[in-house]
Amino acid sequence: MLSYLVSFSDQFAALNVFRYITFRTGGALITSALIVFMFGQGIIDRLRVRQGKGQPIRADGPQTHFKKAGTPTMGGLMILSSLLVSSLLWANLASIYVWVVLVVTVCFGAIGFYDDYLKVTKQSHAGLSGKARLGIEFVVAGAAAFIIMRAGSGSFSSSLTLPFVKDLVIDLGIFFVPFAAFVVVGAGNSVNFTDGLDGLAIVPVMIAAASFGAIAYLSGNAIFANYLQIHFVPGTGELSVVLGALIGAGLGFLWFNAPPAAIFMGDTGSLALGGLIGTVAVATKHEIVLAIIGGVFVMEMLSVIIQVGSFKLTGKRVFLMAPIHHHFEKKGWTESQVVIRFWIIAVILALIGLSTLKLR
Prior knowledge:
The protein is mainly α. It is about 65% helix and about 0% strand. The protein has one domain (about 20-355). It has 13 helices and two strands, in the order ααααββααααααααα. It has a two-stranded antiparallel ribbon.
C-alpha cells in the first residue's frame, strides 16, 4: 500500500524511498515485530481464558512435557495477523504473487485453526480428519499453483529448474500443477511436524524466510539474476517484503515462545508458515532448493513417514518416537539441546542452499 506513495515523489522527493524493495522489506519486518510485541500478551491472556486446559499433551511423549500442560495454543494467530497487516501495508499489492502467497497463508492458517479448535475443545489429539485436511490443502495449493503457472511467461512458467545447473530446465507442462501443489502441501505439513518443542519450528522458519527473501529479491531483479546466472522471474521481488514481515512476526512470537513457552504456535501457525514458504519456492522456481534450505523440516517429515511405514509393514519402530526431535529427547538430550542443535543444522543447510545461487 505504501508503495503507491512513489507516485507523489515528484512533489516530495523523500517518498522515492518507497520505491525500493529493500526499504519496504525492512519496514515490514519492524512493523510486524512491533505489532506482536504490542498485542501479543493480550492475545495470550485471551486464549488462556478461552482454552482453559490449553493444548493437550501427548501421553506417550517425554515426561518433561507434562509440565507444559495448560499452555494455550493457536499462537499462530498473532503471527498471521501481524504478517498480514504488515504485508498489506508495505508490499506492492499490484503483484499477483503477493496475493497468491497471502491467500495460501490465510487458507492454510484457517485449516490449522479449525484443527486446533477441535483438539482444544475435545482435549484430544484427534482433530480434523487427515484425509479431509489434506484434500482441502491440495485444492488450495493446486489453485495457487495454477495461478502461478498462468502468471509466468511461456513454457518456463510450468518448468522445473535444478540447483547448481542453469541450462537444464524440465518442462512439466500441466503436471506442474500437481507437482507444485505437492511442494506447498509438503512444506506446510513438514513445518507442522517440526513444531513440537519451544522455539524449534519458528527459528528454522525465519532462517528459511530470510534465505528465500534473498532468493526472491535476486530472482526478481534482471540485473542480479543475470549476474548470478539464475533464472529471472519477473515480479517475485515483492515476495521479499512478505518474507520480511514473516521474520518480524517470528521474532515477536519467539519472545513469547522462548522456553518456557507462554504460548504454542499450533497448527494455525505451523501449517500456514510452511505453506507460505512452499508457495514462495514455487513462485521463484526454487522448489528443489527448498528441500535443502528446509532440510530440518524434510528430516522431521521423513522420520514420521519411516516410523509409520515400518510399524505397519513389520510391527517395529525405527525411532524411539517420531517426529525425530522426540527420538533425541528419549535418548537423553534436553529440550534446549535438541532445539539449539536443530537451529545449527538449519543455518548450515540454509548456507548450502544459498550457495546454489552462485555455484552453477
